[in-house]
Amino acid sequence: MSTFWSLWIILITSLNLYLLAWLLLANRKVAVSDDDDPENRTTGHIYDGIEEYDNPLPKWWFQLFVATMIFGIIYLIIYPGMGKWPGLTGWTSVNQLEREQQKADEQYGEIYANFAAMSIEDVAMDPAAQKMGVRLFANNCAVCHGADGGGNYGFPNLTDNDWLYGGSAEQIKQTIAHGRAGQMPAWGAIIGEENVVAVGEHVLSLSGAEHDVAKAVEGAEVFATSCASCHGADGKGNYLFGAPNLADDTWLYEGSPEGIRHSIRAGRSNVMPAQVDKLREEKIHLLAGYVYGLSMDAEAEAAE
Hints:
Strand content: 5-15%
Number of strands: 4
Number of helices: 12
CATH superfamily of the largest domain: Cytochrome c-like domain
Distance between the termini: 63 Å
Helix content: 55-70%
CATH class of the largest domain: Mainly Alpha
Largest sheet: 2 strands, antiparallel
CATH topology of the largest domain: Cytochrome Bc1 Complex, Chain D, domain 2
CATH architecture of the largest domain: Orthogonal Bundle
Low-confidence stretches: none
Shape: elongated
Structural class: mainly alpha
Strand order of the largest sheet: 1-2
């Protein structure tokens, strides 16, 4: 904060305190005797025949205002509030957060350390770890992937077996820690609208959806030259590029004919933010175990 703004805050705060004190004391009058002429005890204002008496504030009310102002002055001495003045305690929201984090580390550090010593697969099967994992997920991941991990439009479903960057325990941990940046280039201007439609029909055929056979054959040739390098000749995707599998019925974006054509025509851009600078290693390990556990549940359901 610059010196100017510091002085400005001090001036405005002090001026407000002074004006409030003046207003309070200026309206503090000796109680009017009931023996006085009634006309001398009113403000002169009449509202629908009702006269307003010019009486001072009740004593308890006045004292409450005074106590509030004294509290405010003491607060501004102890805590920051007057520009650059740090307060007698030197309190800041940052050092309070750091103290609370340190306290939490001391309280839960041993628990996290125990889970960190376990493999991700074991964490995924530990009920206590899963209870902690679901809270971490709710605080850090649910806003995009949903409270149940079922995903949203443009955000992957974490409760199935379809993975953009691999679904092994270590691959999931790598994704959480360092993030991912997926980029589907726009092909509309390169291959033209006619080929966009044809490739879209070919993609529909890969997933077994209803499609135009003739256009799908034309699209297969364009797909081989423009798309197969990322998605593979069979359209089953590539973990290295984050290229999705196009041969199933799982879609990150809309899987309708128009939705697929839009992805081809305009491209897609998707970013999973890295958590390594936000969460400790132990928490990332626990989160990876929780997410891996979601996919294990999906495998168990599929086996049934």
